[in-house]
Design brief:
Strand order of the largest sheet: 8-2-1-12-19-18
Radius of gyration: 22 Å
Largest sheet: 6 strands, mixed
CATH architecture of the largest domain: 3-Layer(bba) Sandwich
Number of strands: 19
CATH superfamily of the largest domain: FAD/NAD(P)-binding domain
Length: 440
């Protein structure tokens, strides 16, 4: 890795990136910018990984494999989009953090610096008694004084157990499952606090919600793929990395020699490829437990949600699967009018019941959130249901995540590698950028 050209500049490397998800694309773009020659292998016929669009004849009608959202603190992801030609101001509906229920009640952060905005939003939350508002502000103040740190073995439920039940049900639990895709009784409080810290202490707009106006494919995968090809990278779609073997000071992937490899595939695939190269690392990558996410896309002519994104009740999870609903027409425009996405995070229990049962429960839930009488249930049609069985790793306390560095010239990139973030797009992008930086 240390070889240099005349003049002291590092010589360009032949780099193989395995995986064309958001981590792999970030690594490939950054490596190209450094002057390296990039070859990218992606098992699927299209780029995007676990944050991708479902291919449709009309690109404007594409649905995604889940309703992914960003926040303003995801600066690495937004910067990467700009580098490949995507304008986030056009690509997203950006609003201050708002967690409203189907009746329009809930938390609304006014524009401005996040901390004063949060205090004002809580203090003026008329739906909560004064005792509950003061309890939340006191807890948040305590987290801030302690530097948003807590014992490593604490769950979010343990962290927030002294808060009133309503605060936990209407705010903490939805935030936790949205950020970590892990129920609060099992989720890491350390990671949860890190997300809160970045949202509240990363400057104005850090806590803003960014809801995609465009399909995920148009946000990064397709523009990044075109950007890479214009700069001489070679993309091999529908190609699995079958073999990874050392080759002198470099490596061979599928028999082709290269100087360095970034494994930006799933933890399962990375474990398979490194089983004989680095067995200890491979075992660590294979040890994750996962949480599914189910997204049910519905159509209901003439219906509207009270807001583009609505938080749904969490006090009856055995009857009401989804925690959030999205009005796709309000977010993206008239071409998606009457379409809605209902998202079931931490969906292991519902996945076990089966998708048909889940769909029917979501339809009943949707009727309530759209303020339709039950006799109008037949107006709500299921367009498509997407179940990502391994959507994210289960983000539990003291989770051992493998290091990015595997062996000389071999790195891992993905939201699962060691780091402070849960399984998010920002975590994936940052890991890809870090792996590319290690090439230097």
């Amino acid at each position: 890795m240390g070889a240099e050209q005349a003049g002291g500049r590092p010589r360009p490397l032949q780099l193989t990136v395995v995986g064309g998800g958001w981590a792999g694309l970030a690594a490939a773009v950054a490596a190209c910018e450094q002057g390296h020659q990039v070859r990218l292998l992606e098992l699927a016929p299209h780029l995007g990984g676990r944050a991708r669009s479902l291919m449709d004849a009309d690109p404007r009608q594409r649905l995604d494999n889940g309703q992914h959202i960003l926040i303003g603190a995801y600066r690495a992801t937004l910067a990467l989009m700009r580098r490949v030609g995507v304008d986030p101001t056009e690509a997203f509906l950006r609003t201050p953090l708002t967690l409203l229920d189907a009746n329009g009640r809930g938390l609304r952060l006014p524009p401005g610096p996040a901390i004063p905005s949060f205090v004002r939003a809580v203090a003026t939350l008329q739906d909560w008694p004064l005792r509950e508002r003061l309890a939340l502000l006191a807890a948040a103040g305590g987290w801030s004084i302690r530097g948003f740190r807590c014992p490593a073995d604490w769950t979010v439920a343990r962290l927030t157990r002294t808060l009133p039940e309503r605060v936990r049900l209407e705010l903490i639990d939805p935030l936790c499952v949205a950020a970590l895709n892990t129920p609060s009784e099992a989720a890491s409080a350390t990671v949860f606090l890190r997300v809160l810290k970045d949202a509240l202490f990363s400057g104005p707009g850090a806590a803003d919600l960014l809801l995609p106006r465009q399909p995920l494919a148009a946000l990064l995968p397709e523009p990044a793929g075109a950007w890479l090809q214009r700069r001489g990278a070679t993309l091999h779609l529908g190609t699995r990395a079958d073999t990874l073997v050392p080759d002198g000071a470099g490596w061979r992937v599928n028999g082709t020699a290269c100087d360095a490899v970034i494994l930006a595939c799933s933890a399962t695939e990375a474990s398979r490829l490194t089983a004989t190269v680095q067995p200890g690392w491979s075992q660590g990558a294979a040890s994750f437990a996962y949480e599914p996410i189910i997204t049910v896309y519905l159509q209901c002519p003439g219906a509207r949600l009270i807001a583009p994104m609505v938080a749904l009740p969490t006090d009856a999870p055995d009857r009401e699967p989804a925690q959030f609903a999205f009005d796709l027409g309000a977010i993206a425009g008239p071409h998606l009018a009457d379409r809605f996405a209902y998202v079931v995070s931490g969906a292991a229990g519902w996945a076990a019941r089966g998708l048909k049962i889940t769909e029917e429960a979501v339809r009943v839930q949707a009727a309530a959130s759209l303020h339709l009488p039950q006799r109008s249930l037949n107006r709500i049609q299921v367009l498509q249901t997407v179940a990502e069985k391994r959507a994210t790793f289960r983000c539990t306390p003291d989770l051992a995540r493998p290091a990015a560095a595997i062996a000389p010239g071999l790195w891992a990139a993905g939201d699962y590698v060691a780091g402070p973030y849960p399984a998010t797009l920002e975590g994936a992008v940052r890991s890809g950028l870090a792996a590319a930086a290690a090439l230097r």
